Amino acid sequence: MLHLVYTSSKIHDFVHMLSTRIARGASQRFVRSQCRSFSSSKPAFIEPKAAEIKKLGVIGAGQMGLGIALVASRVAGVPVTVVDNSQKSLDKGLAFADKLLAKDVTKQKLSQSDADAARARLTATTNIEDLHDVDMVIEAVPEIVDLKKSIFANLAKIAPSHAILATNTSSISITLIAAATTSDPTDTSASSRVVSTHFMNPVPVQKGVEIISGLQTSQETLATAVEFCKRMGKIPSVSADVPGFLANRILMPYINEAIICLETGIGEVKDIDDIMKNGTNVPMGPLQLADFIGLDTCLSIMNVLHTQLGDSKYRPSTRLRQMVDAGWLGKKSGRGFYTY
């Protein structure tokens, strides 16, 4: 009898325990189902869709501008309108494009028919109003803040309301440039379409391009810039909107230090470039690279870094300042660290 009571008690405890666990499990399943329900009712993150670029505008017929225009025409296959206020610069730029295309045909990198088609897609004009029907504009003028701000203020009025407004700036704040598109800071209809596509020099050769968003830049603008650069055969890297961005924050102090090594007698031009080419596997040394970039551009970027970051390590070297003052700007002027 005692055994039966004991067994009944155990059975009672077991049933109680089982019912408790079942209830707890049911409760947990209910909570999980509700979590799933709440999660499924929450809007899912939608990846921004890149707009299709069918026609491009490029402002600036210098080495960078024509390089961008040529690659967009040849690789992405889009018509490109190149704008410059100097007809002489346009003629020189198109001659540069012709030379590059002919070189690629000679090296059998491109057929003559493809070269002719790429050239036919390039149109030159001195009238910025001709950008009224483009889907994207890439500005590639010298690193002068007021000049860029003036251009973007005009683009906000001239370009279609859907057009991406990109700058090739290597050092100037994208947020600052975007702000020039409106007098009303609450109106982001134009500023949200401003982004940086910072191509590396020379554009037809270098694969890298920095994509930088300003404070106002929309995700759709960023996505469109990234996708179009990929269509151009480039490998985009996204950077924050800070002085020098990624590439020049690293590159310019490297070039500046090489110039300091020259001016302090640590090494000669050839020795400096040779040790970096042969010792670190870069295609060209820092001084030759500076010549290709343009010493005025190098000085401008170093000034921005030094002024905005306030660190003495970014102070431009005396030799760099002197060479710019002398007009020895590198390849584009015929003389820099090398003679061209």
TrEMBL record:
Keyword Thylakoid: no
MF terms in GO: NAD+ binding; oxidoreductase activity, acting on the CH-OH group of donors, NAD or NADP as acceptor
GO biological process annotation, one example: fatty acid metabolic process
Presence of the UniProt keyword NAD in the record: yes
Keywords: NAD, Oxidoreductase
Binding site residues for NAD(+): 60-65, 84, 143, 148, 170, 201, 332
Positions of the 3-hydroxyacyl-CoA dehydrogenase C-terminal domain: 244-340
Pathway where this protein functions: Lipid metabolism; fatty acid beta-oxidation
Domain 3-hydroxyacyl-CoA dehydrogenase NAD binding: 55-240
Site features described as Important for catalytic activity, chain residue numbers: 198
PANTHER family cross-referenced by the UniProt entry: 3-HYDROXYACYL-COA DEHYDROGENASE FAMILY PROTEIN, 3-HYDROXYBUTYRYL-COA DEHYDROGENASE
Family according to the record: Belongs to the 3-hydroxyacyl-CoA dehydrogenase family.
Descriptive protein name: 3-hydroxybutyryl-CoA dehydrogenase
